[in-house]
Design goal:
By secondary structure, the chain is mainly beta. Helices cover 6% and strands 46% of the residues.
């Protein structure tokens, strides 16, 4: 029997016709689809609520998507867990008090000991850096430890986020990218990101640098990400950024292709090469100090090449330092 004849026999079966009708609306729009790429935002031809399955979803991607748009203008958003690391929780601003270098954020029932945690200063400029951003041993709070090399005159505030393996994310990545400083940036760098919201949370890592300047403040406003640094970056500096937004209203731009932690082997010198098998030179990396025992070893630069994340540090980390990292890739 030919393939054509088998198909004719199939659609002639009343049970098959009922099955076919169940996945299409009266107007002929599918309520369920399978494909190798997520439909672009704004395309037509999908019923509201249409379920799209990505059977070839790779590590870090979400395999199930739902159309919250219309039949003529689709908007597919991820639904359910990711096949790798996603943002399990995020919050802030939380006050980083100026009379103590350790701030504990109570997250009972939310944070887990194995989460990779990140922080970003969002209020009050200051050169102080994060010495540790780590779940406490009791697993009920997040410790944000500042180096406090120059105690701020006013309190600082920070956003925080935790990434977890195979979770259903609370937040997704709305934007991610890299920015190269230009001559007119001075110490305040304004990056245009169309669609950015003032309520978004931004996390920034130095990509390249020629000195030990610091990222002192990161602020989101409508369509603009502003990074305040300690010295004029001129043209020898660049930055990687990740923007988080509450899941449910947008199609993410990136996913976490790889995540991990690295502990210094000692001596690493000031250049640390971390093997990330499968990473691409076009990936974006976000790095956070996980734990350290001093106030003078910080990341000056973090760049991706094929299979390798290379960090440049202000000092030799010896064996008492560790870092968390996220490797982001575009959908």
């Amino acid at each position: 029997m030919s393939k054509l004849q088998r198909f004719i026999n199939y659609i002639a079966d009343p049970r098959a016709r009922r099955s076919i009708r169940s996945i299409f609306t009266a107007g002929g729009f599918p309520t369920r689809e399978v494909g190798n790429s997520i439909p672009n935002t704004g395309v037509g031809g999908y019923a509201p609520g249409c379920e799209f399955i990505l059977p070839n979803a790779s590590l870090g991607q979400c395999a199930k998507w739902i159309n919250i748009g219309s039949e003529t203008s689709a908007l597919f958003i991820p639904d359910g867990p990711v096949l790798g690391y996603g943002c399990a929780f995020a919050g802030g601003p939380v006050d980083l008090t100026d009379d103590a270098d350790e701030t504990y954020v109570a997250l009972p029932g939310v944070i887990q000991q194995t989460d990779y945690c990140f922080a970003s200063k969002c209020i009050t400029t200051g050169a102080d850096q994060f010495k540790a951003v780590v779940p406490t041993s009791g697993k009920d709070s997040l410790l944000i430890d500042m180096a406090m090399g120059t105690n701020p005159t006013d309190s600082m505030d920070a956003y925080y986020a935790g990434f977890r393996d195979k979770c259903t994310p609370e937040y997704d990545i709305a934007f991610a990218g890299e920015y190269v400083a230009v001559g007119g940036d001075d110490t305040t760098i304004a990056i245009t990101i169309t669609g950015l919201l003032a309520t978004d949370m931004a996390f920034v890592t130095p990509l390249t640098t020629d000195d030990a300047d610091t990222i002192n403040l990161v602020v989101c406003t409508a369509d603009t990400l502003t990074i305040t640094v300690s010295v004029d970056p001129e043209v020898a500096h660049s930055y990687s950024y990740m923007i988080l937004r509450k899941r449910g209203t947008f199609k993410p731009s990136h996913y976490v292709a790889y995540a991990g932690q690295y502990t210094a082997l000692g001596p690493d010198t000031t250049a640390v090469a971390i093997t990330v098998t499968g990473a691409l030179a076009t990936d974006i990396v976000i790095v956070q100090c996980y734990d350290s025992d001093d106030d003078d070893c910080f990341v000056e630069a973090a760049a991706m090449s094929a299979n390798t994340l290379t960090m440049e540090l202000t000092n030799d980390p010896v064996t008492n330092h560790s870092w968390s990292y996220l490797v982001l890739r575009a959908y």
